[in-house]
Write a structure and sequence with these properties.
heterodimer, B: Four Helix Bundle (Hemerythrin (Met), subunit A)
Chain lengths: 99, 222
């Protein structure tokens, strides 16, 4: 079997990007962006996660089945987060007798 | 291939070495998905309580040392870089480079855990560990409880992350031992490959922990 061997140059570029993004998220957190601070922090974290997953974890060259499994995992994580938060954030919207 | 000869790269239940490799990789990813759900529950708890007790969480978060956190994040990213180079060395059959990069990964992982231990020690000194002696300066009496909740989540999440790191260090030592014995070749280096998947996953968890625990309220302290 022959696997794709990535060049050291690509790994180095990804590595440097990750370090720059770490510095960026740290510096941006000091600036007052109001509610956008959380958005910026999570956006940078997602970009870093994608860099690690696609390049370091070779997801780019993985089989379709592996990609579907990972996508399915993220979908269930999304259900966990979105539905639970939808519950907590909408409590008290409607007058429920006895509450 | 002779079906009677069993080699590490082709066990009898598989048709081809490629199929065996795919099964191992897929199995590791399925395990990692269960880990995502496991940590996901903690991130959910964090999000809900942070919204509920925003003030106390911001005060508590700002007592963490951002410089140490950022440096430790960089250390972990360096360890992921050496790990990916270790996998690449195994791919191209360079035993020496594989051993060197595994040792570097283990050392960087050790640095991360050492810094983490120092940070936890500071929390004990500062009475920021949830319990009877807990006290957060600047926080009102009403906020002491929610602040303990922040530190409970802090210790649970960084603690579980550190546990994963410690297990990863054990895996790396195992890989190092087998690499030293010359067990990995370009035809068979699956353990290095899926060990790398685990190591990078633990890195990704920290990529979320760092901003959520250390950075969420930095802009409010000026």
């Amino acid at each position: 079997m022959h696997e794709h061997v990535e060049s050291i140059k690509i790994y180095t570029l990804v590595f440097l990007s990750l370090l720059i993004l770490t510095a960026a998220t740290t510096l941006v957190s000091e600036i007052d962006l109001g509610p956008l601070n959380v958005v910026a922090a999570l956006f940078i974290a997602v970009v870093k996660m994608l860099l690690v997953a696609l390049f370091f974890m070779h997801l780019r060259h993985s089989t379709i089945l592996t990609k579907v499994v990972v996508g399915g995992g993220m979908l269930w994580l999304g259900i966990l987060l979105v539905l639970s938060l939808a519950d907590f954030n909408t409590r008290g919207w409607l007058p429920v007798p006895g509450k | 291939m002779d079906s009677h000869t069993l080699t590490p790269e082709l066990q009898e239940q598989f048709e081809t070495a490629a199929q065996q490799k795919e099964v191992s990789t897929l199995g590791m990813w399925i395990f990692l998905v269960t880990e995502i759900m496991f940590f996901g529950g903690l991130f959910l708890a964090y999000t809900i309580y942070r919204k509920e007790f925003a003030g106390a969480f911001e005060l508590a978060s700002n007592t963490l040392n951002v410089t140490i956190g950022a440096v430790n994040t960089a250390v972990l990213i360096c360890s992921s870089f050496t790990m990916v180079l270790a996998v690449r060395s195994a791919q191209i059959g360079s035993r020496k480079a594989l051993i060197v990069f595994l040792i570097l990964t283990i050392l960087l992982g050790g640095v991360f855990l050492g810094v983490k231990a120092y940070e936890w020690d500071q929390k004990f000194e500062e009475h920021h560990v949830p319990g009877p002696t807990f006290h957060l300066e600047k926080a009102t009496a009403d906020d002491q409880g929610p602040a303990q909740l922040f530190f409970s989540l802090y210790f649970t999440m960084t603690g579980l992350h550190a546990l994963h790191m410690a297990i990863g260090e054990g895996l790396m030592l195992f890989l190092l031992w087998h690499a030293y014995k010359g067990k990995y070749t370009p035809a068979y280096y699956t353990p290095v490959d899926i060990g790398g998947l685990y190591w990078h996953f633990v890195d990704i968890i920290w990529i979320y922990l760092f901003p959520l625990l250390y950075l969420i309220a930095r802009h409010k302290q000026h």
